[in-house]
Amino acid sequence: MELPEVAAPELSLDTMRDITRELSSDAFEGRAPGTVGEEKTLALLTAKFAEAGIEPGNGDSWYQDVPLVSIEAKNVSALTVKGDAEAMDFAYGPEMVITSYQEQAKIDVTDSEMVFVGYGINAPEREWNDYDGVDVKGKTVVILVNDPDFGTESLEGEFGGRAMTYYGRWTYKYEEAARQGAAAALIIHDTAPAAYGWNVVESSWSGPQFYAQSANGGADQTKANGWIQKEVAAKIFASAGQDLDQMMTAARNKAFKAVPLGLTASMSFENDIGKMNSKNVIGMIKGKTRPDEYVLYTAHWDHLGRCKPAPDGDDICNGAVDNATGTAALVALAEAHVKAGTPDRSILFLAVTAEESGLLGSKYYAENPIYPLNKTVGGVNMDAFAMAGPAKNIVVVGKGKSQLDRYLEGALTVEGRVAEAEPTPEKGFYYRSDHFSFAKLGVPMIYFDGGEDLIEGGRAAGEAVSKDYTENRYHGPKDEFDPNWNWDGVMADLKVYYTVARMLAMTEDWPNWNEGDEFRDIRDKSLADS
Ligand SMILES: [Zn+2]
Questions:
Q1: Cα separation of 269 and 359, whole Å?
Q2: Which three-class secondary structure state does DSSP give residue 46?
Q3: How many A from CA of 380 to the centre of ligand 1?
Q4: pLDDT digits (tens, 9 = 90+) for 104-127
Q5: What stretch of H or E contains 157?
Q6: Cβ burial, residue 80 (10 Å; 0-12/13-18/19+)
Q7: d(CA 384, ligand 1 centre) in Å
């Protein structure tokens, strides 16, 4: 099938810059769900969607309610670890962080036996079970981050080689610990396999944490979920007469068996619990010839709100790059698609909430779609534009997964740019933004990052910018708007996002996941129902 020809779009740099600046200003307080920052974000976004000339996407409403519960740990005790030797206390914040998914006013974990469960994975289809032969009910499990073949060079292996699988994500590890009946789950932080430093853990895990509302108030969850610093883990293992490094090596082996540490853990804290409806925002352009077929744009509008202060006292995580840029892009793209005239298929512009809390807004939409997923042709997710300047490449997260790659390549060829597979699949980016919520239910989704092979300065310059972002800005108070940013690369990437979706909106094609991909069967079944 030929790709449709798409004329050059009118994409407004002013829209991108002005909306990014405004959403990331201190007045928006870091856009945490349920705060004044949410109110301001919703007001701004709906006004801009209306100005752009698109329609409300949920009947005559711009909104979809997303029922959330917020739980904030207060008066957190130290983590006390006891054994034969003297008890050790580890401080909340610098040494450990903790939260609860249970809607309980007071959480007490008292003298709970500690068990090291390796990577904390129970994967019957891979015949791998770190919980085999051990009963962890009421106990505190200690878990490694990422998955067992994280350290290998290739992409071959029990768990995708160097690439992270869903089993490597912290969300999975807490889910499995709860299924096993553990009282508490502590993940050992390690910068390389976690893909971010302790600073990110500490800022992301302090303040209110959000969850989807559940009928049982989280009663099936562990009482306490947290992280401990690697040095803390080393001390705990040493006092148990074990060596952390040796244990880490042993856990990579399929024959690994969970190790009771002969120690107990105690901790307590209070929970501040709130319930609310946060909101996804949705606008649409109704298609001309096939209005009941939908092309989807997604970007999360939320960020972390007030967070751990920087040394200068700044305690607002502004989220300028992450993801004021992607939210602004929804508006700039809406304007451009309206100017280009009515497309054949409908185009949806979905700004989701609570991505930072575990993709909650996108998951809610995907499970309660306003437009059927088997009528949703495919989509594009935007999360954090690269501010490094124009690049020769783009970096595709999940390259080779779906036939959308053809559209992406078509859009890039015109620009003389190339698509590269992500260089660091071990960081698990495929599971770390909203496209995953849709992919999991079968909708083909494209997600890419601006490339690091810069037109000026090449890879060295690009890598330096991205290293600075990850180490000094990502999920911290210094992800702020910078008036000196060079927007040329952003506008070039925006054009690619435009072209891919425009082509999809002007074809009759239904690109699918490639044969053998993990999501192909789900899509085939879903399409068969339509
Ligand atoms: Zn983001």
A1: 26
A2: helix
A3: 14
A4: 999 999 999 999 999 999 988 789
A5: none
A6: middle
A7: 6
Q: Which residues crowd ion ligand 1, with CB under 5 Å?
A: 322-323, 383
User: In this structure, what are the phi and psi dihedrals at residue 517, rounded to the nearest 5 degrees?
Assistant: -70, 150
Quick one: which of 448, 455, 495, 469 has its CA closest to 387?
469
Q: At what angle do helices 230-239 and 244-251 cross, to 10 degrees?
A: 100
Question: Do the Cβ atoms of 116 and 185 come closer than 8 Å?
Answer: no
Q: Per the structure block, which two tokens stand in for 14?
A: 């002013």
Please compute the mean of the pLDDT values over residues 440-458 and round it to a whole number: 93
Amino acid making up residue 316: I
Neighbours of 71 (CB within 10 A): 20
Residues 6+ away with beta carbon under 8 Å from 253: 148
332 Cα to the center of ligand 1, angstroms: 18
Run of H or E including 4: none
How many degrees, rounded to 5, is the angle at CA 40 between CA 37 and CA 41? 85
Least confident range from 31-40, 155-164, 220-229, 428-437: namely: 155-164
Tell me how far the alpha carbon of residue 433 lies from the centroid of ligand 1, in angstroms: 7
pTM assigned to the model: 0.83
